[in-house]
Design brief:
The structure holds two protein chains of two kinds. By secondary structure, chain A is an all-alpha fold. Chain A has 14 helices and no strands. The two termini of chain A are about 20 Å apart.
Amino acid sequence: MSMQTGLATSTTQLRSYAPATDVSVAAPAPRLEIVRAEPVAARQNPRTEPGPIRLIIIALAITFLSVFVVLPLVVVFASAFSKGVVAYFAALAEPEALAAIKLTLLIAAISVTLNLVFGVVAAWAISKFEFAGKTFLITLIDLPFSVSPVISGLVFVLLFGAQGYFGSWLQAHNVHILFAVPGIALATIFVTFPFVARALIPLMQEQGTQEEEAAISLGASGLQTFFRVTLPNIKWGLLYGVLLCNARAMGEFGAVSVVSGHIRGETNTMPLLVEILYNEYQFVASFAIASLLAMLALITLVAKTVLERRLDEAEVPDGD
Amino acid sequence: MVSTAVARRSTLPGFGLTMGLTLTWLSVIILIPLGALFLKTSELSLDQFWNIVTSRRTLNALKISFGLSFAAACVNLVMGTIIVWALVRYRFPGRRLFDAIVDIPFALPTAVAGVALTQLFAQKGWLGAPLAELGIKVAFTPIGIFIAMVFIGIPFVVRTVQPVLIDLDPEIEEAAASLGANRWHTVFRVILPSLIPALLTGFALAFARAIGEYGSVIFIAGNLPNVSEIAPLLIVIRLSEFRYADATAIAVVMLVASFLIIFLINRLQRWAQARIPVH
């Protein structure tokens, strides 16, 4: 999808055409950053709207984002700390909470590692060679993005559940996939499957094969070429994919919920524990766990912004 | 098919190995599991499938999911356009901060969004309380589902349209203005039409995401059968009742719908490329 690459360029290229002073009154001023001096195009009025309309549009945008996006985030932290800092940390120190945090880290480590290897391998095959059906292959890799999380979990129940295709065999051999770590890992890998590959493919396609071909012709082996030539070129893109993959792996709810079985202290990841505690009206505990996930999201966003800058800088000046 | 593909003369090594690994991993993780879904459905006769899909509860769940997703995507289309316009065309304090904020629904785990929106719109919540005084109940009603869907859909429209609006050739607008078009005409007859493919793509992405959405919706939904029960939740309920066939049939309907939407998005993007001359 063009979105992924579009994101990388969107923030840095923003140009603006209206003087900032006109509208500063309309902004409700929640922690404002300093507006950096940007090249204000000298084009005048044919390209902007009358002042009042400008004000209305900006006010609508700010209000909408504040109410629907910022406020829910604030609610998470406000509810987590509603009984004080002590209650907050007590909730996080509960054995159940610690078990959920550990499981979430384990699942993320497994699925990010596997998808990292797969992503690099797939990106190498797709971006460095020409073959028929390439577009179709990319569509298949993208598939999990368009499958409902619940369905992503359901397919593994159909395979490994008691009534599933491999269910009786697994039972006979006493192998636990569903309601255990392997099932949770599989569902998470499914959901996070495209992230690394999608971050690398456009980047590696753009970089072409010349540098690698030069290395090979100078006598480097395939692995040497990859680690000495390709990897340094794609490191920021790789990190970008891993970042998004990790955020989704730690935060996945629907798919994991279907395969986990919700065994307390054993198969509950952090998002599942948020649900259980919330349904038991343990709001402080629920939002305490949720606040950790929200912080993960915020850190991911900041890191993503930094990486996008890096990627933009690394990009060759495009002349389209 | 891919497996018969031949690498065109390239001096680089590793095509066979990496392609083999890619196809194996893809099959194990994606293709075989999704295949199981269709295999399970094929065990049903056409009559059985039809009866499940058209049973009152399933039909209502599908109606709720598709109907509210469509409504939410419409709101996202309008508000997304307004937000993207403000972010790209105007300068105001906090603009870059708000630009970053747009991504929060992408980044926030769905369960967290779910409990937060529920808390916010519950009867005693910050927004729920004033709304309750006006006689509007949001949490545990279809309106709640709609709100959650609006929340998760907003980045799709903004992030799809943003690069297109940024890249829009300024000369077109200047030409329109110098030919005597007023601003209203320029915006609605010149700029918006060239944004249409991106707008529709963003709309379709938001729509598709909302149909399949689970985590951020189920907390605020109320989950009353036939009233506020979404299709993904009905799948989960059928699974917990060990009615695998029912769960699978609903999943297939949703999956086919989302494949149709992807197909539509691909066509839209091709249309966009054909329409907008590369400059």
